[in-house]
Amino acid sequence: MRPSKRAADELRPVRIERGVSRHAEGSCLVRFGATEVLCTASLEDKVPGWLRGGGKGWVTAEYGMLPRSTTERMRREASSGRQSGRTLEIQRLIGRSLRAVMDMGKLGERQITVDCDVLQADGGTRTASITGGWVALHDCVRWMAARDMFVSEPLIDHVAAVSCGVYAGATVLDLDYPEDSEAETDANFVITGGGKLVEVQASAEGDPFTEEQLGEMLALAKTGVARLVELQKLAIA
Q1: Residue 110 marked in a binding site
Q2: C-alpha distances in angstroms, 204 versus 125, 164, 174, 184?
Q3: What SS3 class is residue 115?
Q4: 125 assigned to a ligand binding site
Q5: 124 labeled part of a ligand binding site
Q6: Against a cut of 0.90, is the pTM above it?
């Protein structure tokens, strides 16, 4: 039995609320159970120096956790003068995931930065950030479309992410913190709306996992992401 009493293939309750920031070109508040992430997409009329003059745009991401997003206060990374390795790894993952479904040539020489700020953490903050980040990115692109800022659609597909793992000997979908902290295997899957894999992160925390278990986790992840994509579609409808 899972601590949350959920079935092995059951997501936590997922909610996506759009338009939560007055100033950002795109924004949403995404909730995976008790995990809450504010995602904003900001458009700038410039690109990194190494892209200047090439006619292509860029999508990047930043990620951070508020001090009391966890059970005990965390020190702000800004006060320590540097970002942790975990933060850098997660924001690079978010950026790669979103770029996988964008045609940079159609964006023009512009940059969209998706900021993902964790308000409350209960496991799966990176997967929630990617899922909600796509919605914020979508709304930013729609903001651009309303102003005739591109000729053809640069956003080519959905992308979402979900965690899976081996907990108490069983493969399960969408781990919350009690499961994540005790899982024998922890994995994250980033998958497009068309079912293509963008990234797979999997590691054994205890006993090594089998190829069969990896296949079971992938099957759960595909099912979970398909549901998340449907929720994205409902949110933007």
Answers
A1: no
A2: 19, 12, 16, 6
A3: strand
A4: yes
A5: yes
A6: yes
